[in-house]
Amino acid sequence: MKVGIIGATGYGGLELIRLLHNHPEVQGIDLFSSSEEGMHFSHKYSFLMNIFDQPLLKIETDRLAEYDVLFTSTPSGVSSELLPALIGTKPKLIDLSGDFRLKDLPTYEQWYKKDPAPADAVEKSVYGLTEWNTPAIAKAQLIANPGCYPTAVLLSLLPLIKENLIDASHLVIDAKSGISGAGNKPSQMTHYSETNENTAIYKLHEHQHIPEIEQAIQMFANQSTPITFTTHLVPMTRGILATSYAPVNEGVTEADLVNTLQETYANQSFVRIIKDMNKFGTNQVYGSNYCDIHVKVDPRTNRATIVSVIDNLVKGAAGQAVQNMNVQFNLKQTTGLSLVPLFI
Ligand SMILES: NC(=O)C1=CN([C@@H]2O[C@H](COP(=O)(O)OP(=O)(O)OC[C@H]3O[C@@H](n4cnc5c(N)ncnc54)[C@H](OP(=O)(O)O)[C@@H]3O)[C@@H](O)[C@H]2O)C=CC1
Ligand SMILES: CC(=O)N[C@@H](CCC(=O)OP(=O)(O)O)C(=O)O
Question: The organism sits in which domain of life (predicted)?
């Protein structure tokens, strides 16, 4: 397969390169840049010397149709302009940004504060939460790869909401992310002196992943409910830990929750239900495509605490994108993704 990566110089792009380099079905990888075309990639990133020395290519829409797969790992508002012209041409299109995720265009405008993608392109796009949408992904040309937080949150909650085991109308989700989630463009928020030795809450009640999570709960668990979702920036590079709290429905036990999670993901390679634990953290999935989930009911409050961890750049971005590519090309989902987590 011949692959093109637009946004190769960013964090998601670099992670795609790392994964696709080891993918047995990928023969060539072209790297595109909007700001540094012509620059030899290993001059920019010396850690890629003798691996990716090639020059960065200029993005020319009419030349993009020659690829088998194109990944766009670009800020919101870029793929919505670039990809619609490629619909109906040869390449499978996998977009890592939020541009094609929200089906309701005014909702995109409200939360992203940008013009939405054309309606027909959004309609044709398929939400790439792999474990929940495999048949549609297999048939799709354009994949809207999920956001990092929604991936961690939805994988842990959807089975429990779908089976009516927890009360979604009282759901509270508290999520924490490493700083690479904000991309490689420096900002006040990600400045070392303001992130080191600091944990901060941000985008309170305004995070763009709120409507994405609500849409997916409706789509896959058939429940329409507003959620309380808060995001925090913690002083680490990679990782997301999402902790959700919800009342358990009448007659439901902790064993019911655990069994439902285990049954839902029994045939899935990348979702692990961790039953017994005394410590559960982002380092158990670091650098891998795993999502680990743990659930426990507090009998004093009758509330369930559901916790999940992912690596935001792998299962939360590039890893899930490659998993979706595998589904689109009828390959085993694990192809090129058998990464052991970097625990220490
Ligand atoms: N970081 C994460 O954990 C996750 C990110 N995402 C989403 O994935 C996308 C990429 O994120 P991330 O890699 O972190 O972001 P970065 O900021 O690290 O990288 C984005 C890249 O996009 C390129 N770019 C910028 N403007 C344009 C343009 N007008 N046309 C073409 N390319 C452009 C830039 O490269 P150049 O200047 O060379 O063109 C840049 O390196 C974002 O939409 C993000 O929200 C999703 C899930 C997780
Ligand atoms: C730590 C951090 O800043 N994370 C980013 C996640 C970016 C992302 O995934 O946003 P898209 O929906 O545009 O893809 C954030 O909270 O906005």
Answer: Bacteria
Closest-CA residue, ligand 1 atom 30, reads 34
How many residues would you count in the chain?
344
Distance of CA 181 to the CA centre of its chain: 10
Q: Does residue 96's CB lie within 6 angstroms of at least one atom of ligand 1?
A: yes
Q: Which residues does the annotation mark as catalytic?
A: 148
What residue ranges define each of the domains in the chain, with the CATH number in brackets? Answer: 2-124 (3.40.50.720), 149-312 (3.30.360.10)
CA distances from 258 to 160, 167, 301, 306 (A): 9, 16, 18, 10
Q: What is the pLDDT along the chain (344 residues), one digit of tens a residue?
A: 999 999 999 999 999 999 999 999 999 999 999 999 999 999 999 999 999 999 999 999 889 999 999 999 999 999 999 999 999 999 999 999 999 999 999 999 999 999 999 999 999 999 999 999 999 999 999 999 999 999 999 999 999 999 999 999 999 999 999 999 999 999 999 999 999 999 999 999 999 999 999 999 999 999 999 999 999 999 999 999 999 999 999 999 999 999 999 999 999 999 999 998 889 999 999 999 999 999 999 999 999 999 999 999 999 999 999 999 999 999 999 999 999 999 99
Q: Is 78 in the pocket of ligand 1 (CB under 6 A)?
A: yes
Q: Identify the nearest ligand to the CA of 95 by its number.
A: 1
Q: Does 217 contact ligand 1 (Cβ within 6 A)?
A: no
Structure-block tokens of residue 6:
């637009």
pTM beyond 0.80? yes
d(CA 329, CA 137): 10
Other C-beta atoms closer than 10 Å to the C-beta of 53 total 11
**Closest protein CA for atom 44 of ligand 1:** 97
Q: What is the ipTM of this complex?
A: 0.98
List pocket residues of ligand 2, CB cut-off 6 Å. Answer: 76, 97-98, 147-148, 177, 181-182, 208-209, 231, 233
